[in-house]
Amino acid sequence: MGVLGGKRAVVWGVANKRSVAWGIAQALHREGAALALTFQNERVEKMARECADQIPDTLLLRADVEDEDQIQSVYEQLSKQWERLDIIVHSLAFAPAEELKGRFLDTSRRGFLTALEVSTYSLI
By the number of CB atoms within 10 A of the CB, which of 3, 4, 20, 110 ranks highest? Predict the structure, then answer.
């Protein structure tokens, strides 16, 4: 058993086998941690499930972090499955595609706030 044996970790933001979140989840598993993975929506669910299926007993939970109820639901589900949570990995980043074109100074307020909410505020 690795240095994280007996620890429980939730990794937010698994999208596919190339996502940073998935690489972190694999490392946590190698070190002995039990895992819960979150994915954003139906569009990435199949790919996230393919990742989760590679590690026995991994919990897979939907979590669109722009929806407070879904965030709360993740923690409620985790508390039903586990007596404690030891590790939280926040591996989320998003900006609307149209905001990534052109100059940074031309970023709209709405686009910036969306990026801030998903990429940063969702950790709180």
Answer: 4
